[in-house]
Amino acid sequence: MRRPVFHLTPPAGWMNDPNGLVWHAGRWHAFYQHNPGGPGWADMHWGHASSLDLCHWDHHPVALAPDPALGMVFSGSAAQAEGRLAALFTHCVLQQHQVQSLAWSDDGGLTWRPEPGNPVLVEPDLPDFRDPKIAWHPPTGAWVMAVAAGQSIRLYRSPDLRQWTFASAFADGSDLPGAWECPDLFALPAPDGSRWWVMLVSVDQGGPSGGSGTWYRLGQFDGFTFDPLGPARWLSHGPDHYAGVTFSDAPGGRRVLLAWLRNWREARDLPHAGWRGAMTAPAELSLVPGEGGLRLRQTPVAELQALRGVGGAGDRFEPGGPFELHLTVGGPFRVEIGVVGGAVTLTGDGQTLRLDRSSAVPARHAATMAVPVEAPCAAGDLVVLVDHGSVEVFDAGGAHLAASLWRDLAGLVTVQGATARWWALG
Ligand code: FRU
Predict the structure, then answer these.
(1) Residue ranges of the domains in the chain?
(2) What pTM does this model have?
(3) For 143-155, what is each residue's pLDDT tens digit?
(4) Domain 13-300 listed as CATH 2.115.10.20
(5) Pocket of ligand 1 (CB under 6 A)
Protein backbone atom coordinates (compact mmCIF):
# COMPACT_ATOMS: atom_id res chain seq x y z
CA MET A 1 0.00 0.00 0.00
CA ARG A 2 1.41 3.36 -1.01
CA ARG A 3 1.28 6.22 1.44
CA PRO A 4 -1.40 8.88 0.75
CA VAL A 5 -0.12 12.17 -0.70
CA PHE A 6 -2.53 14.75 0.77
CA HIS A 7 -3.92 12.84 3.75
CA LEU A 8 -2.25 12.95 7.16
CA THR A 9 -0.81 9.58 8.23
CA PRO A 10 1.44 8.71 11.19
CA PRO A 11 5.18 8.43 10.42
CA ALA A 12 5.10 4.99 12.08
CA GLY A 13 2.81 3.16 14.47
CA TRP A 14 -0.92 3.49 14.96
CA MET A 15 -3.25 6.48 14.44
CA ASN A 16 -6.92 6.94 15.34
CA ASP A 17 -8.94 10.05 16.25
CA PRO A 18 -7.82 13.59 15.41
CA ASN A 19 -7.12 15.42 18.69
CA GLY A 20 -6.35 18.98 19.72
CA LEU A 21 -6.97 20.45 16.26
CA VAL A 22 -5.98 24.09 16.58
CA TRP A 23 -4.68 26.94 14.43
CA HIS A 24 -1.86 28.76 16.20
CA ALA A 25 0.76 31.31 15.06
CA GLY A 26 0.19 30.67 11.38
CA ARG A 27 0.15 26.87 11.49
CA TRP A 28 -2.56 24.23 11.59
CA HIS A 29 -1.75 21.75 14.36
CA ALA A 30 -3.16 18.24 14.27
CA PHE A 31 -2.57 15.98 17.24
CA TYR A 32 -3.93 12.46 17.07
CA GLN A 33 -4.47 9.24 18.99
CA HIS A 34 -1.18 7.45 18.52
CA ASN A 35 0.73 4.36 19.53
CA PRO A 36 4.32 5.17 18.55
CA GLY A 37 5.40 1.68 19.58
CA GLY A 38 3.55 -0.35 16.97
CA PRO A 39 0.81 -0.49 14.36
CA GLY A 40 -1.92 -1.63 16.78
CA TRP A 41 -4.16 0.28 19.21
CA ALA A 42 -2.32 0.33 22.55
CA ASP A 43 -0.62 2.65 25.01
CA MET A 44 -2.28 5.83 23.69
CA HIS A 45 -0.19 8.99 23.23
CA TRP A 46 -0.87 12.19 21.27
CA GLY A 47 1.09 12.28 18.02
CA HIS A 48 1.70 15.72 16.51
CA ALA A 49 1.95 17.18 13.02
CA SER A 50 1.59 20.75 11.76
CA SER A 51 0.99 22.35 8.41
CA LEU A 52 0.87 25.72 6.68
CA ASP A 53 -1.76 24.58 4.18
CA LEU A 54 -3.61 21.57 5.69
CA CYS A 55 -2.19 19.42 2.86
CA HIS A 56 1.57 19.08 3.55
CA TRP A 57 2.30 17.99 7.12
CA ASP A 58 5.52 18.26 9.15
CA HIS A 59 5.84 15.57 11.79
CA HIS A 60 6.89 16.53 15.33
CA PRO A 61 7.90 14.48 18.36
CA VAL A 62 5.12 12.81 20.33
CA ALA A 63 3.32 15.57 22.28
CA LEU A 64 1.67 13.79 25.22
CA ALA A 65 2.65 10.43 26.72
CA PRO A 66 0.83 8.26 29.27
CA ASP A 67 1.06 9.37 32.89
CA PRO A 68 2.21 6.71 35.37
CA ALA A 69 -0.66 7.48 37.74
CA LEU A 70 -3.44 8.79 35.49
CA GLY A 71 -2.96 6.48 32.54
CA MET A 72 -3.15 6.65 28.77
CA VAL A 73 -3.84 9.88 26.88
CA PHE A 74 -7.20 9.59 25.14
CA SER A 75 -8.92 12.06 22.84
CA GLY A 76 -9.40 15.75 23.54
CA SER A 77 -9.00 19.23 22.18
CA ALA A 78 -6.76 22.31 22.26
CA ALA A 79 -7.27 26.06 22.14
CA GLN A 80 -5.31 29.28 22.53
CA ALA A 81 -5.62 30.47 26.15
CA GLU A 82 -3.61 32.80 28.40
CA GLY A 83 -1.30 33.60 25.45
CA ARG A 84 -0.28 29.96 24.94
CA LEU A 85 -1.84 26.64 23.99
CA ALA A 86 -4.02 24.60 26.31
CA ALA A 87 -4.95 20.96 25.77
CA LEU A 88 -7.89 19.35 27.56
CA PHE A 89 -7.99 15.57 27.20
CA THR A 90 -9.00 12.32 28.85
CA HIS A 91 -6.66 10.29 31.00
CA CYS A 92 -7.71 6.66 31.02
CA VAL A 93 -6.40 4.05 33.40
CA LEU A 94 -8.90 1.45 32.30
CA GLN A 95 -11.98 1.88 30.17
CA GLN A 96 -13.66 2.11 33.59
CA HIS A 97 -11.72 5.09 34.90
CA GLN A 98 -11.68 8.18 32.74
CA VAL A 99 -10.89 11.70 33.97
CA GLN A 100 -10.26 15.03 32.22
CA SER A 101 -6.82 16.63 32.43
CA LEU A 102 -5.19 19.88 31.30
CA ALA A 103 -1.74 20.62 29.84
CA TRP A 104 -0.02 23.79 28.64
CA SER A 105 2.44 24.52 25.85
CA ASP A 106 4.56 27.67 25.52
CA ASP A 107 6.35 26.58 22.36
CA GLY A 108 3.58 26.14 19.84
CA GLY A 109 2.58 22.63 20.85
CA LEU A 110 6.01 20.96 20.75
CA THR A 111 6.33 20.36 24.49
CA TRP A 112 3.62 20.28 27.15
CA ARG A 113 3.51 20.70 30.93
CA PRO A 114 0.67 19.09 32.87
CA GLU A 115 -1.49 21.32 35.07
CA PRO A 116 -0.32 20.61 38.65
CA GLY A 117 -3.88 19.99 39.87
CA ASN A 118 -4.68 17.27 37.32
CA PRO A 119 -7.17 15.80 36.81
CA VAL A 120 -9.30 18.93 36.52
CA LEU A 121 -12.63 17.10 36.13
CA VAL A 122 -13.66 13.79 37.69
CA GLU A 123 -17.10 12.16 37.73
CA PRO A 124 -16.67 8.94 39.76
CA ASP A 125 -20.11 7.60 38.76
CA LEU A 126 -19.59 7.92 35.00
CA PRO A 127 -17.55 4.99 33.62
CA ASP A 128 -17.50 6.20 29.99
CA PHE A 129 -16.52 9.84 30.30
CA ARG A 130 -14.20 11.11 27.59
CA ASP A 131 -13.11 13.22 24.63
CA PRO A 132 -13.58 16.82 25.91
CA LYS A 133 -13.88 19.60 23.34
CA ILE A 134 -13.30 23.10 24.72
CA ALA A 135 -14.27 26.50 23.29
CA TRP A 136 -14.52 30.02 24.66
CA HIS A 137 -18.12 31.29 24.66
CA PRO A 138 -17.87 35.10 24.34
CA PRO A 139 -21.51 36.03 25.11
CA THR A 140 -21.34 34.47 28.59
CA GLY A 141 -17.59 34.94 29.12
CA ALA A 142 -16.75 31.33 29.95
CA TRP A 143 -14.99 28.27 28.63
CA VAL A 144 -17.41 25.54 27.66
CA MET A 145 -16.54 21.84 27.52
CA ALA A 146 -18.59 19.23 25.65
CA VAL A 147 -17.65 15.74 26.83
CA ALA A 148 -19.14 12.33 26.04
CA ALA A 149 -20.63 10.31 28.92
CA GLY A 150 -22.26 7.00 27.98
CA GLN A 151 -25.04 7.90 25.57
CA SER A 152 -25.06 11.58 26.40
CA ILE A 153 -23.01 14.73 25.95
CA ARG A 154 -22.40 16.69 29.12
CA LEU A 155 -21.65 20.41 29.03
CA TYR A 156 -19.49 22.11 31.67
CA ARG A 157 -18.37 25.72 32.16
CA SER A 158 -15.16 27.23 33.52
CA PRO A 159 -13.61 30.66 34.00
CA ASP A 160 -10.04 29.35 33.58
CA LEU A 161 -10.03 25.75 32.21
CA ARG A 162 -9.12 24.48 35.71
CA GLN A 163 -12.39 24.60 37.65
CA TRP A 164 -15.41 23.14 35.93
CA THR A 165 -19.12 23.39 36.79
CA PHE A 166 -21.75 21.10 35.28
CA ALA A 167 -24.21 23.03 33.08
CA SER A 168 -26.44 20.46 31.32
CA ALA A 169 -26.61 17.07 29.63
CA PHE A 170 -27.82 16.39 26.09
CA ALA A 171 -29.06 12.87 25.47
CA ASP A 172 -31.62 13.38 22.74
CA GLY A 173 -29.82 12.20 19.64
CA SER A 174 -30.86 8.88 18.27
CA ASP A 175 -31.56 5.40 19.55
CA LEU A 176 -28.41 3.91 18.06
CA PRO A 177 -26.46 1.43 20.18
CA GLY A 178 -22.94 2.05 21.33
CA ALA A 179 -21.03 4.69 23.22
CA TRP A 180 -21.15 8.33 22.21
CA GLU A 181 -17.67 9.70 21.60
CA CYS A 182 -15.75 12.74 20.37
CA PRO A 183 -18.32 15.55 20.55
CA ASP A 184 -17.90 18.98 19.00
CA LEU A 185 -20.10 22.05 19.45
CA PHE A 186 -19.67 25.18 17.33
CA ALA A 187 -21.64 27.93 15.61
CA LEU A 188 -22.10 28.36 11.84
CA PRO A 189 -23.96 30.97 9.82
CA ALA A 190 -26.77 29.91 7.45
CA PRO A 191 -27.14 31.47 3.98
CA ASP A 192 -30.01 33.66 5.26
CA GLY A 193 -27.75 35.17 7.93
CA SER A 194 -29.21 33.22 10.87
CA ARG A 195 -26.73 31.58 13.23
CA TRP A 196 -26.93 27.93 14.23
CA TRP A 197 -25.06 25.68 16.61
CA VAL A 198 -23.87 22.29 15.43
CA MET A 199 -23.43 19.30 17.75
CA LEU A 200 -21.28 16.49 16.33
CA VAL A 201 -21.41 13.07 18.01
CA SER A 202 -19.55 9.93 16.96
CA VAL A 203 -21.15 6.55 17.70
CA ASP A 204 -19.05 3.42 17.65
CA GLN A 205 -21.86 1.12 16.44
CA GLY A 206 -24.83 1.47 14.09
CA GLY A 207 -23.19 3.82 11.56
CA PRO A 208 -24.73 4.33 8.10
CA SER A 209 -22.50 1.65 6.56
CA GLY A 210 -22.34 -0.41 9.74
CA GLY A 211 -19.84 0.08 12.54
CA SER A 212 -18.61 3.59 13.30
CA GLY A 213 -20.41 6.76 12.23
CA THR A 214 -20.82 10.41 13.13
CA TRP A 215 -24.12 12.27 13.30
CA TYR A 216 -24.91 15.91 13.82
CA ARG A 217 -27.80 17.99 15.02
CA LEU A 218 -28.43 21.67 14.49
CA GLY A 219 -29.82 23.75 17.32
CA GLN A 220 -29.29 26.72 19.58
CA PHE A 221 -26.89 27.07 22.50
CA ASP A 222 -26.97 29.76 25.20
CA GLY A 223 -23.69 28.88 26.86
CA PHE A 224 -25.41 26.40 29.19
CA THR A 225 -27.85 24.19 27.25
CA PHE A 226 -27.95 22.85 23.70
CA ASP A 227 -31.51 22.87 22.29
CA PRO A 228 -31.75 20.70 19.19
CA LEU A 229 -33.99 21.83 16.32
CA GLY A 230 -34.33 19.26 13.59
CA PRO A 231 -33.35 15.60 13.31
CA ALA A 232 -30.03 13.80 13.72
CA ARG A 233 -28.34 13.34 10.33
CA TRP A 234 -25.17 11.52 9.30
CA LEU A 235 -22.16 13.73 8.72
CA SER A 236 -20.91 11.22 6.14
CA HIS A 237 -22.52 8.11 4.67
CA GLY A 238 -19.21 6.51 3.95
CA PRO A 239 -17.90 3.65 6.07
CA ASP A 240 -14.64 5.39 6.97
CA HIS A 241 -15.36 8.74 8.58
CA TYR A 242 -15.13 8.75 12.36
CA ALA A 243 -14.37 10.96 15.35
CA GLY A 244 -14.56 14.04 13.11
CA VAL A 245 -13.90 17.31 14.94
CA THR A 246 -13.04 20.86 13.89
CA PHE A 247 -10.03 23.13 14.34
CA SER A 248 -10.23 25.70 17.14
CA ASP A 249 -9.25 29.32 16.51
CA ALA A 250 -9.16 29.00 12.71
CA PRO A 251 -8.69 32.38 11.02
CA GLY A 252 -11.51 34.07 9.09
CA GLY A 253 -14.26 32.18 10.93
CA ARG A 254 -13.40 28.99 9.02
CA ARG A 255 -14.69 25.62 10.34
CA VAL A 256 -12.32 22.93 9.07
CA LEU A 257 -12.94 19.29 9.92
CA LEU A 258 -10.66 16.26 10.02
CA ALA A 259 -12.00 12.79 10.71
CA TRP A 260 -10.32 9.41 11.05
CA LEU A 261 -10.54 7.68 7.66
CA ARG A 262 -11.26 4.29 9.22
CA ASN A 263 -14.05 2.27 10.81
CA TRP A 264 -13.45 0.64 14.20
CA ARG A 265 -15.14 -2.48 12.79
CA GLU A 266 -12.00 -3.43 10.84
CA ALA A 267 -9.36 -0.80 11.63
CA ARG A 268 -7.30 -2.87 14.06
CA ASP A 269 -7.04 -5.74 11.62
CA LEU A 270 -6.32 -4.09 8.26
CA PRO A 271 -3.00 -4.69 6.48
CA HIS A 272 -0.25 -2.24 7.38
CA ALA A 273 3.28 -1.21 6.44
CA GLY A 274 4.54 -0.23 9.88
CA TRP A 275 2.04 2.65 10.04
CA ARG A 276 -1.71 2.30 10.28
CA GLY A 277 -4.42 4.94 10.01
CA ALA A 278 -5.12 8.13 8.08
CA MET A 279 -7.17 11.30 8.39
CA THR A 280 -9.77 12.44 5.87
CA ALA A 281 -9.01 15.26 3.44
CA PRO A 282 -9.50 18.55 5.32
CA ALA A 283 -13.04 19.77 4.70
CA GLU A 284 -14.63 23.18 5.21
CA LEU A 285 -18.06 23.04 6.89
CA SER A 286 -21.01 25.24 5.91
CA LEU A 287 -24.80 25.14 6.14
CA VAL A 288 -26.88 24.73 2.99
CA PRO A 289 -30.67 24.52 2.49
CA GLY A 290 -32.11 21.04 1.92
CA GLU A 291 -35.43 19.24 1.95
CA GLY A 292 -36.75 19.45 5.51
CA GLY A 293 -34.21 22.01 6.71
CA LEU A 294 -30.57 23.01 6.70
CA ARG A 295 -27.79 20.50 6.05
CA LEU A 296 -24.17 20.48 7.07
CA ARG A 297 -22.04 20.45 3.93
CA GLN A 298 -18.41 19.42 3.64
CA THR A 299 -16.27 21.00 0.89
CA PRO A 300 -12.60 20.17 0.27
CA VAL A 301 -10.52 23.10 1.55
CA ALA A 302 -9.42 25.60 -1.13
CA GLU A 303 -5.76 24.91 -0.26
CA LEU A 304 -6.04 21.57 -2.09
CA GLN A 305 -6.24 23.44 -5.41
CA ALA A 306 -2.55 24.34 -5.09
CA LEU A 307 -1.75 20.62 -5.45
CA ARG A 308 -3.29 20.47 -8.93
CA GLY A 309 -0.91 19.37 -11.67
CA VAL A 310 -1.70 18.10 -15.14
CA GLY A 311 -5.35 17.62 -15.93
CA GLY A 312 -7.96 17.73 -18.59
CA ALA A 313 -11.54 17.11 -19.58
CA GLY A 314 -12.97 13.94 -21.06
CA ASP A 315 -14.39 10.58 -20.20
CA ARG A 316 -11.18 8.48 -20.20
CA PHE A 317 -7.96 9.47 -18.51
CA GLU A 318 -5.00 8.00 -16.73
CA PRO A 319 -4.02 10.23 -13.80
CA GLY A 320 -1.12 8.00 -12.74
CA GLY A 321 -1.79 8.57 -9.03
CA PRO A 322 -3.93 10.73 -6.74
CA PHE A 323 -6.42 13.02 -8.49
CA GLU A 324 -9.40 15.33 -8.16
CA LEU A 325 -12.44 14.84 -10.37
CA HIS A 326 -15.30 17.27 -10.91
CA LEU A 327 -18.48 15.77 -12.32
CA THR A 328 -21.35 17.73 -13.83
CA VAL A 329 -24.22 15.30 -13.51
CA GLY A 330 -27.60 15.47 -15.26
CA GLY A 331 -28.90 11.91 -14.92
CA PRO A 332 -27.61 8.42 -14.19
CA PHE A 333 -23.83 8.23 -14.31
CA ARG A 334 -21.01 5.77 -13.70
CA VAL A 335 -17.34 6.35 -12.88
CA GLU A 336 -14.77 3.55 -12.78
CA ILE A 337 -11.51 4.18 -10.99
CA GLY A 338 -8.83 1.65 -11.85
CA VAL A 339 -7.05 -0.16 -9.03
CA VAL A 340 -4.62 -3.08 -9.17
CA GLY A 341 -6.72 -6.08 -10.24
CA GLY A 342 -10.01 -4.24 -10.76
CA ALA A 343 -11.92 -1.00 -10.41
CA VAL A 344 -13.84 0.95 -7.82
CA THR A 345 -17.18 2.20 -9.17
CA LEU A 346 -19.16 5.28 -8.24
CA THR A 347 -22.68 5.42 -9.63
CA GLY A 348 -25.63 7.77 -9.19
CA ASP A 349 -29.23 7.93 -10.38
CA GLY A 350 -30.28 11.36 -9.17
CA GLN A 351 -31.45 9.96 -5.83
CA THR A 352 -28.73 7.69 -4.52
CA LEU A 353 -24.98 7.77 -4.75
CA ARG A 354 -23.38 4.33 -4.57
CA LEU A 355 -19.72 3.39 -4.12
CA ASP A 356 -18.64 -0.19 -4.77
CA ARG A 357 -15.09 -0.88 -3.64
CA SER A 358 -15.39 -4.68 -3.59
CA SER A 359 -12.26 -5.10 -5.72
CA ALA A 360 -10.22 -2.89 -3.36
CA VAL A 361 -10.76 -4.43 0.08
CA PRO A 362 -8.92 -7.22 1.90
CA ALA A 363 -10.52 -10.61 1.22
CA ARG A 364 -10.89 -11.42 4.91
CA HIS A 365 -13.10 -8.35 5.39
CA ALA A 366 -15.14 -8.77 2.22
CA ALA A 367 -18.32 -9.57 4.17
CA THR A 368 -18.46 -6.03 5.54
CA MET A 369 -16.23 -3.91 3.33
CA ALA A 370 -17.30 -5.19 -0.09
CA VAL A 371 -20.92 -4.19 0.46
CA PRO A 372 -21.63 -1.09 -1.69
CA VAL A 373 -22.10 2.07 0.37
CA GLU A 374 -24.87 4.51 -0.41
CA ALA A 375 -25.78 8.11 0.28
CA PRO A 376 -29.05 9.90 -0.52
CA CYS A 377 -28.07 12.52 -3.06
CA ALA A 378 -30.00 14.75 -5.48
CA ALA A 379 -28.65 15.11 -9.02
CA GLY A 380 -25.97 17.77 -9.04
CA ASP A 381 -22.29 18.43 -9.35
CA LEU A 382 -19.85 16.25 -7.43
CA VAL A 383 -16.24 16.57 -6.36
CA VAL A 384 -14.31 13.31 -5.98
CA LEU A 385 -10.92 13.16 -4.25
CA VAL A 386 -8.87 10.03 -4.81
CA ASP A 387 -5.59 9.45 -2.97
CA HIS A 388 -3.58 6.31 -2.40
CA GLY A 389 -5.86 4.42 -0.03
CA SER A 390 -9.10 6.39 -0.24
CA VAL A 391 -12.01 7.84 -2.22
CA GLU A 392 -14.04 10.78 -0.90
CA VAL A 393 -17.14 12.19 -2.62
CA PHE A 394 -18.61 15.63 -1.86
CA ASP A 395 -21.90 16.99 -3.19
CA ALA A 396 -23.25 20.50 -3.03
CA GLY A 397 -26.34 19.43 -1.03
CA GLY A 398 -24.31 17.99 1.83
CA ALA A 399 -24.13 14.30 0.87
CA HIS A 400 -20.71 12.83 1.56
CA LEU A 401 -18.98 9.46 1.23
CA ALA A 402 -15.53 8.55 2.51
CA ALA A 403 -14.11 5.08 2.02
CA SER A 404 -10.69 3.55 2.41
CA LEU A 405 -9.19 1.44 -0.43
CA TRP A 406 -6.79 -1.46 -0.01
CA ARG A 407 -5.41 -1.75 -3.56
CA ASP A 408 -3.04 0.70 -5.22
CA LEU A 409 -4.45 3.01 -7.89
CA ALA A 410 -3.70 1.78 -11.40
CA GLY A 411 -4.83 2.33 -14.97
CA LEU A 412 -7.74 4.20 -16.41
CA VAL A 413 -10.52 6.28 -14.98
CA THR A 414 -13.66 6.22 -17.13
CA VAL A 415 -16.78 8.35 -16.87
CA GLN A 416 -20.22 7.71 -18.40
CA GLY A 417 -23.28 9.98 -18.14
CA ALA A 418 -21.47 13.01 -16.70
CA THR A 419 -19.13 15.74 -17.89
CA ALA A 420 -15.77 15.31 -16.22
CA ARG A 421 -12.82 17.57 -15.48
CA TRP A 422 -9.80 16.23 -13.61
CA TRP A 423 -6.43 17.22 -12.18
CA ALA A 424 -3.61 15.10 -10.86
CA LEU A 425 -2.92 16.03 -7.23
CA GLY A 426 0.56 15.90 -5.78
C1 FRU B 1 -12.91 7.08 19.58
C2 FRU B 1 -12.20 6.68 20.86
C3 FRU B 1 -12.36 7.75 21.91
C4 FRU B 1 -11.19 7.52 22.81
C5 FRU B 1 -10.13 7.09 21.83
C6 FRU B 1 -9.17 6.07 22.36
O7 FRU B 1 -12.41 6.48 18.44
O8 FRU B 1 -12.71 5.44 21.32
O9 FRU B 1 -13.60 7.75 22.57
O10 FRU B 1 -10.82 8.68 23.51
O11 FRU B 1 -10.80 6.55 20.70
O12 FRU B 1 -8.13 5.84 21.46
Answers:
(1) 13-300, 303-425
(2) 0.97
(3) 999 999 999 999 9
(4) yes
(5) 16-17, 33, 44, 74-75, 90, 130-131, 181-182, 243
